[in-house]
Amino acid sequence: MTTTLIRHAELAVVWDATAGRHAYMPGADVAWRDGVLSFVGRGYEGMADEVIDGRGMLVMPGLVNIHSHPTSEPMNKGLLDEIGSPGLYNSSLYEFMPIFRSDAEAIPDCVRVALSELLLSGVTTLADLSMAHPGWLDLLAEAGMRVCIAPMFKSARWFTKNGHVVEYEWDEKAGEKAMQEAFTLIERAEQHPSGLLFGMACPAQIDTCAPELLRDSRAEARARGISWQIHAAQSVVEFHEITRRHGFTPVQWLHEMGLLDERAIIGHGIFLDDHPSTPWHTKRDLGILAETGTTVAHCPTVFARRGITMKDFGRYKRAGVKLGVGTDTYPHNMLDEMRLVAYMARTQATDPRTMTTTDVFEAATIGGAQALGRDDIGRLAVGCRADIVVVDATHPRMQPAHDPVRSLIYAAGDRAVKDVYVNGRKVVGDGEVLTMDFRAAALHLAEAQKRIVGRATQQDWAHRPVDKITPPTFKWL
Fold first, then answer.
1. Who has the most CB within 10 Å: 71, 214, 351, 452?
2. Distance (Å, rounded) from C-alpha 353 to C-alpha 150?
3. Segment 345-366 mean pLDDT
4. Secondary element (H or E) of residue 243
5. Distance CA 22, CA 64 (A)
6. CA dist., res. 237 & res. 288, Å (int)
7. 320-347, pLDDT tens digit by residue?
8. Is 97 exposed, middle or buried (0-12, 13-18, 19+ CB in 10 A)?
9. Residues 153, 201: contact at Cβ < 8 Å?
10. Cβ distance 149 to 185 under 8 Å?
């Protein structure tokens, strides 16, 4: 075992155990041994096998991303940027996303592109919500990132035949079989030689899962001591479907079944009973989320593209709702996502004081860690994992640096991220991914997209040309 030391960091975001929150520490020393932080403070006097000069550097904990779809979303770049189904309340879930879905050949490059973008933006722990695919675990381990695999399973698939009605094709036995396979895959992940993989139960969507599948998956997750995540309150279509089936809002239906608690995560949680787009006769949803300790995985970018947003992050926070941040879509840039969290909240609240940078940084670190049941990530403290982001505080886009974390989130973004360590291993060096060939994966993905686009018209219910489905920015001459 060797000891690595970052000596005299210009500034470090360290964990203040007394206050229970992050704090700035100038001139900090940060040391780790065997993937674990052994010293965080000033005046380190121990031995070190490698010493890194921390002058001009901001050292902070790795970011924790609790909601992402690496196998599919990179494929949609340039295609789904500004389209949503007008007959389905501007969601793109039901009509457009399925026709541009990645095929098996494209998935590895999709994953490599997404994970590279995540590492470059300071993510060291990721929740990967994907349908199981061959070689998944080894592909994730290749990145050197800490990953919570969440193999999605469901009882039905959704589709539309006309662009304004969503239908469901049910196969409950297939859903049960997929759930069992998911738990087996989680066991394999936890035994993976990389030591970086763990698992989470993930029934895909509230409207595609039979009640028995939801109850059984929740019970199994509790028995195994793992987190449980579901997409819910993510579209107006889904809100109306659940109220039609059960007479409850999505949040209330999950609560009625006893599925919500401090290890439950709701992906998105936008359309509550008091959202302007889904007014209901109750006003209970926000309180239920807070009282049960449920975490909401907030991913604003994909919804902002459709003119949809949470009302608002600050309101949820003040109500006592636990919050985490995810990159549901491309670009898989966590710092960009955090910036948009803040800007969307303030515009929706018409109040710059609705939330603070502290709030969003906590959501992207300890909020995500708690949701995944981890107390050893998301903070720089002795005994925690050595998941560290080193930012070049002298970067021109970081200047002036009156408050470096604000400069990072609101101005510099991933351009100032210099080095990233996961479990003490350097996976990004001088702004380049060291574990995967990002550029090659991106080029391969570009070729794959041509193949996917070439058959999109046949996948579309109306057999429209691609340029009609997603009109180009300018006319092609």
1. 71
2. 35
3. 98
4. helix 236-246
5. 15
6. 21
7. 999 999 999 999 999 999 999 999 999 9
8. middle
9. no
10. yes
The whole-angstrom separation of Cα 445 and Cα 142 is 18
Contact 418, 431 (CB under 8 A): yes
The rounded distance, in Å, linking the Cα atoms of 71 and 441 is 13
Q: Residue 1: what pLDDT?
A: 81
Question: Beta-carbon neighbour count of residue 257 at 10 Å?
Answer: 14
Angle CA(458)–CA(462)–CA(465) in degrees, nearest 5?
Answer: 60
Rounded Cα distance, 66 and 213, in Å: 22
Of all residues in the chain, the percent with pLDDT exceeding 70 is 100
DSSP letter at 329 equals S
The structure tokens listed for 326 are: 């995810």
Inter-axis angle of helices 136-143 and 172-190, nearest 10: 40
User: What distance in Å separates the CA atoms of residue 192 and residue 146, rounded to the nearest whole number?
Assistant: 12
Q: In the block, which residue shows the tokens 């926070």?
A: 317
**Greatest CA span in the chain, whole angstroms?**
70
Of 101, 152, 100, 102, nearest in space to 127 by CA: 152
Place of tokens 């603070």: 356
Handedness of CA 404, 408, 410, 411 (dihedral sign): positive
Q: Which helix (H) or strand (E) holds 152?
A: strand 146-153
What single DSSP character describes residue 416?
Answer: G
Note the Cα 297 to chain centre separation in Å: 7
Nearest to 67 by CA among 372, 288, 294, 422: 372
In angstroms and rounded to an integer, the radius of gyration of the C-alpha atoms of the chain is: 22
Q: At what angle do helices 172-190 and 211-224 cross, to 10 degrees?
A: 20
Rounded CA gap, 108 and 94, in Å? 24
Tracing tokens 């991914």 back to the chain, one arrives at 433
Predicted structure pTM score: 0.97
- Residue whose token pair is 């389905």: 88
Q: CB–CB of 413/333 below 8 Å?
A: yes
Q: How many CB atoms lie within 10 A of CB 319?
A: 12
